[in-house]
Each structure stands twice: as C-alpha cells, then as structure tokens.
C-alpha cells in the first residue's frame, strides 16, 4: 500500500536516488549533490526554513516518489519543487496524488498562484504539468550547472475563478487541455462546428491553428481556471478587414461540462470585453445557435440580437437549427 508522509532529513539517500535515477534517463544530466545541490542532504530542514514542506511516497517502506513546495515571497505565489516518481510508478496516478497534495498545502497557506521550473529535456514532465492545468509562462531560464540546463517556467492560478490572456508559449502549452475541453463540450451536445465523437488528435490540430494565430497577433486567447483546474476558454478574432479596425469577433466560448453554472462563461465574456476595450476594439460580433444557453448568457450581458438565419446548421440529432447574430457596442 502506498503512503504519502512528510519528508525527513534522514530520507536523504532516497531523495538522492529518486532524483539521480530520473536524471540518468537523459544524456548529460549530471547530479552533483555536494557541488550543486547540497540541500539534498537535509531537504526537510531546507524547505522548513523556507516556509515550505517536502513529502515522500512509500510502498512497503520503499520510497517511490517525492514532491516539495515553498512560498516565493511575491504575489502570494508558491513554487512546486522536486517532483519525482520512480519510473515503474509513472502512469499509476501517484504523481497526481503527490502534486495534488502539494497544491492543496500551498492553497491552505494562502497561495494565489503556483509556479514551477522544469528542464526543457523532460518532455513527459511537460505533458504531465500541462494536464494539471499549468501553462508556459515567461522566458527560459539558463542554469550555470554541469548539466548545462535550460528550464521552462510553468504557472497557473491556485484558487478561485481566474481568467488570463495566453501568449504564444502559453497557448501552445495549453493545447492538450483545451483539446480535452473541446472534446468534452462536443460530447455534451454543445452547439459547435463539430460532431461527436471528436478525436483528441483532431481537437489538438484545431488548437495548434489557434496557437499559431496567437503567435501572429491575429487572435487573443483567454483561459479560465477554477480552483487551479482549467475550466474554459474564449477567443477574440482580430483578423477583421482593414475597413473594420474597430471590430473583433468573439469565437468558441467553451466551458467544460464539469464547470457549468459556476459563472465561468460570464467571466470569460466579460474579460474578453475588457481585453477588446484595451486594444481599441469598440464593437464585438458573434453568432451562436438559437435556443442554447449561450444565447441566454449573451442576452443577460447586454448583447443585442441583429438577426436570425433559419436552418443555418444541424443540431446533434441532425435537425435544422437557427443561428442568431449578436453584437455588443463597448
């Protein structure tokens, strides 16, 4: 049976083994404990002095995973550190248990934001963090160490309902999670441009195009988190004709079914309106399926119906469905 307990200084040998084994999977990753990371000799004390904590996962007395967290002292952010599990334990859910516990501890201590650094070579770790709702944030960090390490910074809001704009790096790293949201919305019968079942590969391909538009500056991507979980998204299409520089198109308002009726859609639309004002767009337009929840949402937010096209599309049952055109003057 796997048990997760607070780490101790006398776990040093296990901590060093877990990190060393993980690093040994990559060429030129060198763990020089005494020369570069002497804190591993007394890791519990190290994190305790920093106001944080470390945990170890054990199975029959054998250490199989670890994680730590500490406050950064700015913007009420906490950093996730030393996230490692044995190779044989990957895919078992242990990493999720460890990271989830560290995140919960940080929230209980008042964290508003969670950040972490991960080596650019650790691609499986990137996928894991992205699945947990983290996105790339900021520039690459260059370490003057024996391993010649380059590190990506990942971050996400820790608590509450938060909507943030994603830059090109964040958009690319969010593709997997956003694809899962899109697939879930289509499966739930959302009035989108796709039929169920939509494969994850097809959904990711769609988000890669969005990421490319974000990088080109022709699209603004907003992402919502609820208690640290990615909950929804919306886009502002800025690629309007040169005669319409004041207009933007609101596209793909998506809220994961698990987060419906919690104010996520409203927060996304209001943040999109705020962002549009900030870049000088004074008119927003959109179209949506008549009779759906989106129509009621936009009506309640002051959007005006400009027209209706009968039988514009087909619903999930294949029946004709009307499309309505809406606008909002900001």
TrEMBL record:
Residues 2-159, 181-322 form the N-acetyltransferase domain. Pfam families: Acetyltransf_1. GO terms for molecular function: acyltransferase activity, transferring groups other than amino-acyl groups. It comes from the Bacteria. InterPro entries: Acyl_CoA_acyltransferase (IPR016181), Bact_Acetyltransf (IPR050832), GNAT_dom (IPR000182). Keywords: Acyltransferase, Transferase. This is GNAT family N-acetyltransferase.
């Amino acid at each position: 049976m796997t048990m997760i307990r607070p780490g101790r200084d006398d776990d040093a040998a296990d901590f060093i083994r877990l990190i060393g084994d993980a690093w040994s999977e990559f060429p030129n990753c060198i763990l020089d404990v005494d020369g570069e990371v002497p804190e591993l000799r007394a890791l519990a004390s190290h994190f305790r002095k920093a106001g944080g904590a470390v945990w170890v996962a054990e199975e029959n007395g054998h250490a199989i995973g670890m994680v730590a967290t500490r406050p950064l002292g700015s913007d009420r952010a906490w950093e996730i550190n030393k996230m490692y599990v044995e190779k044989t334990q990957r895919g078992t859910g242990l990493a999720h248990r460890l990271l989830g516990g560290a995140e919960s501890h940080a929230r209980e201590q008042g964290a508003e934001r969670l950040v972490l650094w991960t080596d650019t070579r650790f691609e499986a770790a990137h996928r894991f963090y992205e699945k947990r709702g983290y996105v790339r944030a900021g520039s690459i960090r260059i370490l003057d160490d024996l391993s010649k390490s380059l590190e990506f910074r990942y971050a996400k809001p820790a608590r509450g309902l938060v909507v943030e704009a994603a830059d090109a790096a964040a958009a690319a790293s969010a593709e997997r999670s956003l694809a899962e949201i899109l697939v879930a919305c289509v499966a739930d019968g959302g009035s989108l441009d796709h039929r169920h079942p939509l494969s994850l590969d097809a959904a990711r391909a769609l988000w890669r195009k969005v990421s490319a538009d974000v990088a080109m500056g022709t699209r603004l991507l907003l992402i919502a988190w609820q208690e640290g979980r990615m909950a929804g998204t919306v886009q502002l299409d800025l690629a309007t004709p040169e005669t319409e520089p004041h207009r933007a198109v609101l596209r793909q308002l998506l809220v994961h079914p698990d987060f419906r009726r919690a104010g996520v859609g409203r927060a996304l639309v209001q943040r999109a309106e705020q962002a549009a004002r900030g870049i000088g767009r004074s008119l927003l337009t959109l179209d949506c399926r008549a009779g759906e929840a989106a129509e009621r949402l936009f009506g309640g937010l002051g959007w005006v119906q400009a027209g209706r096209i009968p039988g514009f599309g087909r619903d999930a049952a294949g029946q004709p469905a009307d499309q309505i055109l809406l606008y909002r003057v900001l």
